[in-house]
Amino acid sequence: MKRDFQAPGRSPVLAREAMASTSHPLATTAALETMQNGGNAVDAAIAAVAVQCVVEPHMTGIGGDCFAIVMEPDGRLTGFNGSGAAPRAATPERMAELGVSEITDTSPHAVTVPGAVRAWETLLKAHGTKSFKTLFKRAIQYARDGFPVAPRVAHDWAANVGKLSADPVSAARYLVNGEAPRVGTILKYPRLADTFQMIAEGGAEAFYAGAIADDIVAALQAHGSLMTKDDLAACHTTAVSPVLRDYKGYTVAELPPNGQGIIALVILGLLERFGLEHLDPLGPERFHLEMEAARIAYAVRDKFVTDPGYMDVCHSRLIGSDYLEQLAQQMSVSRRMASVPEAQLPPQTDTVYLTVVDKEGRAVSFINSLFSDFGSGIVAPDTGVLLHCRGKSFKTAPGFANSIDGGKRPMHTIIPAMVLKDGAPFLSFGVMGGQYQACGHAHVLTNIIDYGMDVQAAIDFPRMFFAMDTHDLQAERLVPGSTLDGLADLGHKVGPAGGPIGGSQAIMIDKARHLLTAGSDPRKDGHAAGY
Known about the structure:
This protein is an alpha+beta fold. The protein has helices at about 25-35, 40-55, 90-100, 115-125, 130-135, 135-145, 150-160, 160-165, 170-175, 190-200, 205-210, 210-220, 230-235, 260-270, 285-305, 320-330, 435-450, 455-460, 480-490, and strands at about 15, 20, 65-70, 75-80, 145-150, 185, 240, 245, 250-255, 350-355, 365-370, 380, 385, 415-420, 425-430, 465, 475, 495, 505-510, 515-520, 525-530.
């Protein structure tokens, strides 16, 4: 059902040569400046995310993880897994000895090795042309001389005062007189500026060894973490081949586990069996199928997806036609599943997203995350490094796909993506929003492919997700009341989401017309620009 979704509001951004779309205007500006000074898309992405680590500290930081996909002008794809592992001593047995039955986001055991800085360096060596010293200039400037707090950042910050107040160092570094900074407040982070300068001069090794590593490990061990300097020193980024699956004539590329990108492909593989294009995109039938497919796919994720060295099945089996057909038989167009059957296969022996396209046609899909707002809330005091909480994905008990183990990477929610059409670059995009991201990828893509929306309309379009524990649906406020009533008639419990669900950025590439079209998410104060 193709419809005209142009409505008053934000228009897509058009450009001929280069484009950047991020969740913060200062980051977008840094990306464009980098390309105008001769850098390519990879250089621009690193410059942009470095700025975001300063101006959006609740969303991302150098104490987090990173994933990326680089698409060359000829459509060749390379993926990068920049996620860190649990400390070597962190086993289920050790957790039991410590009396830890659950890892919360503020637990010191939620802090796995931060992989972002190593990933940035690996990306630059493989595809970049500039140095950290050049690319960190704007980030260092904002950290040292100050930056104004943006409206959406201030809104999110205010919701995290309790978390930051719980730790004296976090409170001192990230609160102003015990309160969240207000819109327009000028903040400075001189310790973080010095840390960026050290990395600019010494490379990633300056982060994973020496004074910065000493500060990180001391802060974590003071909170009871098992992290050591040897754990930090062992950090590495893995180059991986993206997983490809066709959806209605388009090839969608996601990274393999330990990320959940494969689950976006499972959702799409289920939806393609139900003629989504013939349904009203705002109607209950469309959202019913999307949510049922997502419920099944997330059960598959929780059963199987983890560090690939620990998976019982090859990830390619999860998107095989036979298995998808088996899963699809659980879905009904006329009624909600009362429960999701356990995923079966026999065993075998908060976040920032940005995308950049340069004048050569090279595209980068890039995501960098602390997981929860302000990560673990633990700050290394001398260096200003705010540490993520990705390890809260781990189970402390043995026997689960995602059970904690020494040197094991946890399941990740953050997933960059690319789409090709007839083997040529078509779309670089991603979705923010923790657990929602795999479902969000399917939502944005079906908006574009099944309903003919441009990238901005696809991003703006109302969203829905489900509570991970009850599977009750949560709808954004622009979902019509008639759709909510229709979903209730199909057996769903539906309530308001309480706020926006995630966020997104995307750049569409039309090589024939030499045209780039970008969308960015007003939910996150997103900003796209080009030239």
